């Protein structure tokens, strides 16, 4: 195995500023301890859930991450094969280095993430292209009016993909050239809602931390909320995802699914997030590390181990189903 180029490792691992939020996403779980129930005769727990009408084998999905071909030559195709092998959903990044049609050829369940582009026609084209390829939901990332200041990348001079790799889904249908991703500080709710007119797919907003924004998303008829600080890569100093979750779940009141990403590494983290009100979780970096270490099989191993761990932790907590993961199973302790 070639191993990751240290510059690319920094791109994947790193975050904004002092990486306080990167760190906080993981350490915030340390303050939350489980209060297990006993003698509940659960048998083997059932970790399945239904999301947008589809039964998934468990509550762990793949978060959108850019540039998989920097981690492994098979790139997003390998990740998608692993998603297919395990039955989970892969959220394909707008910054994928493989065309969505090729990723869809694996037969995996896919969602597609996008940043609405100032060129509205191109955004509509992209949503239509993803839908035509067979994705079953759109994820609109709303925490990126500008790029976070990623100091590792600045130090390393990592600015762009090496030649031979490109954001294949940004190919202009007319010119055939790959467009640059434009982050748009003028983006508003109306820009997200414009996607409603071009697709019947469920639309989730990703990157919500404030409960008022979650309430707004529901009020505007969006289909799901992803509590996320972009893995600490955007606003350094933003609250850890798991700490933003309770207020968001309270604001949403079960009207739409509330997903969470950021710092989820173990079955205990998954169970903690669900007990705090998440419907499901997504993982970002663990997928990249599995991909870099072993391609399709590496990602499948990460997904399978986490899945098995979730089932074990459910059993140890006395929970037969995900619905039994409730806030009474948690205690907050002093660090
Ligand atoms: C290398 C990398 C690339 C990412 N690219 C995207 C992206 O293209 N679009 C997006 O919405 N989020 C992106 N994210 C954020 C992830 O979707 C997710 O929010 C985050 O990785 C979750 O935290 P975790 O890595 O601690 O699991 C990226 C994260 C990483 C680490
Ligand atoms: O790295 C990221 O977090 C990210 O979102 C991204 C988006 C577009 C291109 C490269 C990275």
TrEMBL record:
<feature type="binding site">
    <location>
        <begin position="64"/>
        <end position="66"/>
    </location>
    <ligand>
        <name>FMN</name>
    </ligand>
</feature>
<feature type="binding site">
    <location>
        <position position="228"/>
    </location>
    <ligand>
        <name>FMN</name>
    </ligand>
</feature>
<dbReference type="InterPro" id="IPR008259">
    <property type="entry name" value="FMN_hydac_DH_AS"/>
</dbReference>
<feature type="binding site">
    <location>
        <position position="233"/>
    </location>
    <ligand>
        <name>glyoxylate</name>
    </ligand>
</feature>
<feature type="binding site">
    <location>
        <begin position="261"/>
        <end position="265"/>
    </location>
    <ligand>
        <name>FMN</name>
    </ligand>
</feature>
<feature type="binding site">
    <location>
        <position position="230"/>
    </location>
    <ligand>
        <name>glyoxylate</name>
    </ligand>
</feature>
<dbReference type="InterPro" id="IPR000262">
    <property type="entry name" value="FMN-dep_DH"/>
</dbReference>
<feature type="binding site">
    <location>
        <begin position="284"/>
        <end position="285"/>
    </location>
    <ligand>
        <name>FMN</name>
    </ligand>
</feature>
<keyword id="KW-0560">Oxidoreductase</keyword>
<feature type="binding site">
    <location>
        <position position="141"/>
    </location>
    <ligand>
        <name>FMN</name>
    </ligand>
</feature>
<feature type="active site" description="Proton acceptor">
    <location>
        <position position="230"/>
    </location>
</feature>
<dbReference type="GO" id="GO:0010181">
    <property type="term" value="F:FMN binding"/>
</dbReference>
<dbReference type="Pfam" id="PF01070">
    <property type="entry name" value="FMN_dh"/>
</dbReference>
<feature type="binding site">
    <location>
        <position position="206"/>
    </location>
    <ligand>
        <name>FMN</name>
    </ligand>
</feature>
<feature type="binding site">
    <location>
        <position position="93"/>
    </location>
    <ligand>
        <name>FMN</name>
    </ligand>
</feature>
<feature type="binding site">
    <location>
        <position position="115"/>
    </location>
    <ligand>
        <name>glyoxylate</name>
    </ligand>
</feature>
<dbReference type="GO" id="GO:0016614">
    <property type="term" value="F:oxidoreductase activity, acting on CH-OH group of donors"/>
</dbReference>
<feature type="binding site">
    <location>
        <position position="150"/>
    </location>
    <ligand>
        <name>glyoxylate</name>
    </ligand>
</feature>
<dbReference type="InterPro" id="IPR037396">
    <property type="entry name" value="FMN_HAD"/>
</dbReference>
<dbReference type="InterPro" id="IPR012133">
    <property type="entry name" value="Alpha-hydoxy_acid_DH_FMN"/>
</dbReference>
<feature type="domain" description="FMN hydroxy acid dehydrogenase">
    <location>
        <begin position="1"/>
        <end position="335"/>
    </location>
</feature>
<comment type="similarity">
    <text>Belongs to the FMN-dependent alpha-hydroxy acid dehydrogenase family.</text>
</comment>
<dbReference type="InterPro" id="IPR013785">
    <property type="entry name" value="Aldolase_TIM"/>
</dbReference>
<feature type="binding site">
    <location>
        <position position="113"/>
    </location>
    <ligand>
        <name>FMN</name>
    </ligand>
</feature>
<keyword id="KW-0288">FMN</keyword>
<keyword id="KW-0285">Flavoprotein</keyword>
<protein>
    <submittedName>
        <fullName>4-hydroxymandelate oxidase</fullName>
        <ecNumber>1.1.3.46</ecNumber>
    </submittedName>
</protein>
């Amino acid at each position: 195995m070639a191993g990751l180029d240290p510059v690319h490792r920094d791109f994947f691992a790193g975050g904004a500023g002092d990486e306080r939020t990167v760190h906080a996403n993981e350490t915030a779980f340390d303050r939350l301890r489980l209060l297990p129930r006993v003698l509940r005769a659960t048998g083997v727990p059932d970790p399945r859930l239904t999301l947008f009408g589809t039964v998934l084998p468990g509550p762990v999905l793949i978060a959108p991450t850019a540039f998989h071909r920097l981690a492994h030559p098979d790139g997003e195709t390998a990740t998608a094969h692993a998603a297919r092998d395990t039955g989970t959903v892969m959220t394909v990044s707008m910054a994928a280095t493989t065309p969505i049609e090729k990723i869809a050829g694996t037969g995996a369940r896919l969602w597609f993430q996008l940043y609405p582009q100032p060129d509205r026609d191109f955004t509509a084209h992209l949503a239509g292209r993803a839908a035509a390829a067979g994705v079953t939901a759109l994820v609109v990332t709303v925490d990126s009016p500008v790029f976070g200041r990623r100091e590792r990348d600045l130090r390393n001079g990592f600015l762009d993909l090496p030649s031979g790799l490109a954001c294949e889904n940004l190919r202009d249908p007319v010119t055939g050239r790959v467009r640059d991703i434009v982050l748009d500080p003028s983006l508003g709710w109306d820009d997200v809602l414009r996607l409603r007119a071009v697709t019947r797919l469920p639309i989730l907003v990703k990157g919500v931390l404030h409960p008022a924004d979650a309430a707004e998303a529901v009020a505007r008829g969006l289909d799901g909320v992803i509590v996320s600080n972009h893995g600490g890569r955007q606003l350094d100093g933003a609250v850890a995802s798991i700490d933003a979750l309770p207020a968001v779940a309270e604001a949403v009141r079960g009207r739409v699914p509330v997903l969470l990403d950021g710092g989820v590494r173990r079955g205990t983290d998954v169970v903690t997030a669900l007990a705090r009100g998440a419907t499901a979780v997504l993982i970002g970096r663990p997928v990249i590390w599995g991909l870099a270490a072993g391609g399709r099989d590496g990602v499948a191993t990460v997904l399978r181990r986490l899945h098995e761990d979730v089932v074990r932790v459910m059993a140890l907590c006395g929970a037969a189903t995900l619905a039994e993961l409730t806030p009474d199973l948690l205690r907050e302790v002093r660090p």
